[in-house]
Specification:
By secondary structure, the chain is an alpha+beta fold. It has four helices and eleven strands; from the N terminus they run H-H-E-E-E-E-E-H-H-E-E-E-E-E-E.
Length: about 230
């Protein structure tokens, strides 16, 4: 699960300078001809004419990155978020999620035969330099059982990103089975910022997704462009 989440967020973690065990991870295109590295507070981007991952609008001082993600399984990404939620859940609530635990413990995603289109994630992107400098993980519990909302939701934010999901397969949600559930974004410090970009991501698909692109636009102060021929 963690591997699929890492592949899904790989390019984003490079562009947002999110450090791992070995510093900010580099991004490399599938053909290895294009790459993005971050070091000493600067980005170094090599883009090949065979696989252009970056373009520059000098007039508006904008850099457009369009990189291909590594192959990933969307449902495994969702399961990874569910696993994070379960790991911080109060012990007296765990008994309500036995079916959930059994579900994320399915070893091979090919063996997950559940057919659904309801594993959706409310995602946001907040521009700026590290608006969420710390990882924040929050469990949200329904106040009353007569409300038509999921029993438990999970909110995760770090760097420029937030992810919000509901935790499936709890017996506490039997009263909302088959009903259309309105999902609301959990507010954060930047909720009123008009530049925050919101979108709904469906992570229900239970197969490997290939050739998925991630396009992001950045403003820059200074940029040096060097064109070269590999034969020189």
């Amino acid at each position: 699960m963690e591997d699929h989440f890492a592949k899904y967020t790989g390019l984003s973690r490079t562009l947002s300078q999110i450090k791992g065990k070995k510093g900010v991870p580099s991004y490399k295109s599938k053909d290895k001809k294009s790459r993005i590295d971050y070091d000493n507070d600067n980005f170094s981007i090599i883009t090949s004419i065979d696989n252009e991952i970056a373009s520059v609008n000098k007039e508006n001082k904008k850099l457009i990155i369009n990189g291909e993600l590594q192959p990933y399984n969307p449902r495994s990404v969702y399961k990874c978020l569910v696993k994070m939620a379960l790991s911080i859940m109060p012990e007296d609530e765990i008994s309500n999620f036995k079916n959930t635990i059994s579900w994320i413990n399915i070893e091979n995603f090919e063996d997950d035969a559940i057919k659904t289109n309801s594993f959706v994630c409310l995602h946001s992107f907040t521009p700026g330099r590290d608006p969420f400098p710390f990882i924040t993980a929050t469990l949200l519990k329904r106040k009353r059982d007569d409300l038509i909302v999921p029993y438990m939701s999970f909110f995760l934010s770090f760097s420029n990103y937030s992810f919000q999901i509901f935790i499936p397969f709890t017996k506490k949600d039997e009263n909302i089975l088959g009903k259309q559930i309105p999902l609301e974004y959990f507010p954060n410090f930047y909720s009123d910022n008009i530049n925050v970009k919101y979108r709904i991501i469906n992570l229900s698909k239970n197969e490997i997704v290939k050739n998925d692109m991630n396009k992001m636009t950045y403003k820059f102060k200074n940029i040096d462009i060097v064109r070269y021929d590999e034969k020189v």
